[in-house]
Amino acid sequence: MADNSKQVHLNNEQNQRFNLITRSLHEVLGADIVKQKISTGEQLKCYWGTAPTGRPHVGYFVPLVKIADFLRAGVEVKVLMADIHAFLDNLKAPFELVQDRVKYYTKLLRSIFISLDVPVDNLIFVVGSSYQLTPQYSMDSYRLAAMTTEHDAKKAGAEVVKQVSSPLLSGMLYPGLQALDEEHLGCDFQFGGVDQRKIFVMAESLLPKLGYAKRAHLMNAMVPGLAGGKMSSSDPNSKIDFLDSAADVKKKIKLAFCEEGNVQENGLLAFLKAVVLPIAAYKQLIKGASPFAAQDAANDFLFSVTRPERFGGSLHYKDYDKIEHDFSTKALHPGDLKKAVEDAINTLLDPIRKDFEADEEFKAVEKAAYPPPIDPAAAAKEAKKAKNEAKKNKTKASAATFQQQSVDSVADQVERVEIPKQ
User: Broadest EC class (predicted)?
Assistant: First the structure.
């Protein structure tokens, strides 16, 4: 973790807060800004944004575990439901559908934080369109556009905005608007993955030119998906959704890349390091035991791999490094690791699934946000049926019209007949 902080004196309690806020991060830009705020005793404010498009998957645990550290350190965390950003990013979803997904994300994220036993008093959800359509924000976006080149906009969003052969102008607006969010959300630092570094650097450069304060930027490392590459909402086999059943989890873990002895690009090991072990340590601290350790393990163990005695008996771990060592030396078999990670993920998801099943509003919001896919064959059949029905109705209408016209014509002719006088 890089730390480019200036000399700001912190007492022991303040240092503990700073260390909690910055631990396990890949990089920190502007640590002095965070330290200065802590040293004065002012409320430290953070913002983290997510575009409500695809279904959130367990990869979200990675930033949420870090946000949990912020909340424990007394930081006010604003979670931006970036509906405008979602719409701008190559129209990934219709804007009307995005509004339903905002509601679903809000419900789900709150449920996740509660399941992690994280204090949520300082957790605030903000919908982007609530302020991004105001005159001041619009004027700021025009001012920013006047000082940003096409090259810089493309470069800043290269790792975040979907890249296509003929990019829309909307995708180039995305990075600058994310920079403006820091000012309009009133944060002291923005948090995100290291893939957003170029946007963060752009923000540090542009905001002072607009007359606004420079913010700090805290970045998580990227965690590989189950297939070994980036965990993606568009690849169903690389991710596990928060509402996936235990059977779905088992199926997806079975397909995960996990070559014996290979610790590189291993999504299962990365998930243990970034998510399971930090949660285990916190649960152990507040509840006296880790939910991921076997019942026969001592209370100071965080994670267990349960296996029969004929295969060497169960393994119990106090830290991640020993897990990685055992896997790299082939003392821990991929099959046993997969089963242990499967159990850990189900332990994490169980309270969220129960919350969902007990909340009718939660279920209704999920259904509206992600309506079932349309079967092309069934849709074609319905369209043909509707077309035939329309044709039949048109024929009936034409016949009725002709009949009425005939009656009207006869009536008209009767009216014109001169009846001879007697």
Answer: ligase
Q: How far is CA 83 from the centre of its chain?
A: 12
Summarize pLDDT for 60-100 with one digit per residue, the tens. Answer: 999 999 999 999 999 999 999 999 888 776 555 677 888 89
Sorted by where each begins, the domain ranges of the chain are 2-220, 236-357
| Tokens found for residue 207 | 């905001």
Domains 2-220 and 236-357 share a fold: no
* Domain covering 236-357, topology: Tyrosyl-Transfer RNA Synthetase (1.10.240)
Q: Cβ(64)–Cβ(113) under 8 Å? A: yes
CA distance 137 to 210: 12
* Averaged pLDDT of the chain: 87
- Predicted model pTM: 0.82
Considering the domain 2-220 in this protein, what is its CATH number? Answer: 3.40.50.620
What is the per-residue pLDDT for 237? 65
